[in-house]
Design goal:
Two copies of one chain form a homodimer. Helices cover about 50% and strands about 15% of the residues of chain A. By secondary structure, chain A is of the alpha/beta class.
Chain lengths: ~325, ~325
């Protein structure tokens, strides 16, 4: 029910996703009447692989997570997460209120032993392929223990989804200070050095894109600022390119010739292909789609949930974090 | 003497800058023999507008600022800052060790009354023109008072250099948390609301590039991460564009047609045109050039120093900060 376009986008994405993924079944959770009407509109009937589960409430995009948690026990989000808890669904995907999703998932599914807080992660397109960055905004003021936990979770994801053997882990820092970073970062640096992760040390913001690193670990504030700034730059550059090609008749003709290449370029940096941020550290798979996602974009988020469910990411994290519990407990 | 290319770049930039700016004189501070040899190599003799001032030491790019401060009293950087202190120069430009420059400038020039720490700022190209962002990495763990001081300094710079009448100020935050930001940010938000600055409230990372804001205020860690991430994205996108046009014969032909427009686009996002970060809050003008700057790029840094000296930015900040001292003292 959430996101900027609600049922319309989710229903269209679900139907298209099922066509392309015969191994997957989906349960649409929300206002039954609205969902059935939308399915009817595109001439699809509910079936064994596409079920509808009614929810009488929905959470507003600007609703306080604590309010949603207390007062929206029959919301589409809450019920979808419950289905994961009950083992009826293998994963939950939502385009709704991020804060409410984090709070609901944490409350209903609970954290894995050894993980204190859920972290949000997503793949970032880089020169060498892609980088997992976490946390992207679920946590402000992370301790060194949290940062170590993020590292383990990122490594599990990069190994399981991208099949990288020993993912390289970097700790986000800045290069300008005499004694770099704050106490949390310096301590996390020591802990990561002592761990048996493939830790390459401090990285800076540009390394997320240009560096030889698979997992970048950071506080949620820095991660979110990095991600949003990057989106801003990409938009600005696209805007500049358009302006340059629209300057005059000559540049417009140049643009006609460049069109096929520019289109291929745009597909490559299309944010829709990077939609779907994972909430890690929970006893279940939960994926957050961008609120403004269209049906194409939302399918990417469903696919991430599918991949993580198939790879059993929560179980893998559970196995791996126990190895590091000693480090984080004795520090 | 600093930067990746030392004397060669600075001498070439200085000579070119003087040709284009008849109102300016420059003093080259560093190893006299080396500078004279370089001037000789390009057939230029020292003159009234281009003097050489000997310094027997120089600071290494990776030298600890505290070490430089104690042991390099005859370094080119220290002497250049001394010249500003003594009123012999109106501004100092350095491509050297950032930490050492901040420490030296702070120690020699002292802070303006009401400003606790120097902040690093630079203009960021945006869809609407450019944005001043500060701090970009001189300070980690800023208090709300520091953030307010940054706002005042940014406003003075945007008014004096860009002639914007009531620059719009935004406070960098993230949108994912129920109660946004940490205590420092929330308190700074209240202080900015109570100030008579043109404060527009919280902004996110993408607003630096796409938002209707002139000054973005943030902790140095977040600012540096934002800046470096943005550089990484821009590099990655340039890399993608090149790859797309080099794919095959057809795309190469497309590239030939697109070349003039792409060149114009590249000039527009050329980081060399944004070189020169200002150290604000000091009793004198100090500008940091990127260490990897070439002569073209270094001229931009000299020009920023020239503009700030002409506009008397330190004096303007001194005047304006007194108005806000009450706010920051009573908070």
């Amino acid at each position: 029910m959430g996101g900027d376009f609600g049922v319309v986008v989710v229903v269209e994405a679900a139907v298209a996703f099922l066509e392309n993924n015969q191994d997957t079944s989906l349960i649409l959770v929300g206002d039954q009447q609205e969902i059935l009407a939308e399915l009817d509109r595109i001439n699809v009937a509910p079936n064994e692989r596409l079920k509808v589960h009614h929810a009488s409430q929905s959470i507003e995009m600007d609703e306080a997570p604590s309010h949603a948690l207390r007062n929206k026990r029959d919301s589409s989000m809450r019920i979808a997460v419950n289905l994961v808890k009950e083992g009826i669904a293998h994963a939950c995907v939502s385009a709704g209120n991020t804060g409410a999703l984090v709070a609901t998932a944490r409350y209903v599914l609970k954290m894995l032993t050894g993980i204190d807080r859920p972290a949000i992660t997503s793949t970032i397109p880089s020169i060498h392929g892609q980088t997992y960055m976490l946390d992207l905004g679920a946590n402000i003021g992370c301790s060194s223990e949290h940062l170590l936990q993020f590292a383990v979770m990122g490594v599990v994801l990069a190994s399981a989804i991208d099949e990288i053997e020993h993912p390289k882990v970097g700790l986000l820092n800045i290069g300008e200070e005499e004694i770099k970073g704050n106490d949390q970062i310096k301590h996390a640096n020591e802990m990561l050095q002592q761990s048996d992760l493939n830790y390459i040390g401090y990285v800076e913001g540009d390394d997320v894109y240009c560096g030889d690193v698979n997992v970048v670990v950071c506080d949620g504030f820095a991660g979110n600022v990095s991600l949003k700034s990057s989106e801003g730059v990409a938009k600005t550059i696209s805007h500049y390119i358009q302006e340059e090609f629209r300057k005059n008749l000559f540049t417009r003709v140049c643009g006609l010739f460049a069109m096929p290449v520019l289109k291929s370029f745009r597909r490559r940096i299309d944010p829709r292909c990077y939609n779907g941020a994972s909430l890690l550290g929970l006893r279940g798979v939960v994926v957050k789609s961008h609120g403004g996602a269209d049906a194409y974009s939302f399918q990417h988020a469903i696919n991430i949930a599918r991949l993580e469910a198939v790879a059993q990411v929560p179980q893998l994290i559970d196995t791996h974090i126990s190895k590091y519990l000693k480090h984080s407990n004795t520090s």
